[in-house]
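The pair is quoted verbatim underneath.

:::
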Amino acid sequence: MRLILLLIFSLLFLTGETARAESSQEPGNIYPEIGALHSGNLLFRQLQQDISRYHLRSKSNEPLPQLFFYQYIVKKNQDFFSLASRINLPYDTLASLNGIRHPSQIDEGSRILIPNMPGLFVPVTPQNDLEYMMAALRADSFEPEKLIKIKRNDSFYFLPGERFHSLERAYFLQILFRFPVDRGRISSRFGVRQSPFTGHRIFHNGIDIAAGRGESVLAARGGEVVETGADPIYGKYILIDHEGGYSTFYGHLEKQSVSLHDRIYSGMIIGRIGSTGRSTGPHLHFEIRRDNELRDPVQLMPNTR
């Protein structure tokens, strides 16, 4: 049976790119499954030929090959980056097609789709922050002829040869923001917790970072100071706007070292750790928002999980 299937796939490949593209546009189509990522596998060889053909035509400004998809089940000890390298496609391509928000989402047994050329797949209906970011940054690139459907009935705009912007790459690699205190530790996390004042369970909007009074507070990312002030709860605070609809909030400061509308860069000292407002001791209350919606800071900073 396996031999028969291989012969069918081989004949399908030889019938020409047009027939393959038509097949790939069928939402219910079962894409040919690559069993192993080595040259002894017929479908893997076909995939590599497809990718080589794309690069040759792209360099000579010839019409690109028709888009076609394969599928693959991730094997033991295969991580996302080694998988992309072995397939010879940018990780941006695999991530955008398969709705992968972070490399850790891929593990043994995951089934992924593999296109026969590099590029970005921007969903018509974004489902997560990364996809919203991709759609917003490329709104002017969406044309009817770039619209495709795949077997999940998802609709995408395919942009051949495109890669993640720096903002998208930082989000994907979870290095969008740096830790705002060099010598500090997370003492209270994002989410529901017991209030240190009332003992009741309440929602904590950010994370608390314990550190010595007077320690430097650093900008978690470059941006513009849009608000400074003093609050009965958060004490002296700073609010910074960042690219992509993000903002960061720094509370309980002893000192604010920046002013309204200052342009700042990542790692710049913007204040000092204090215990102003309603506080149990010296620490930084740190929040990240996107379009005014709260985000867990731990998910957007490296090495904090």
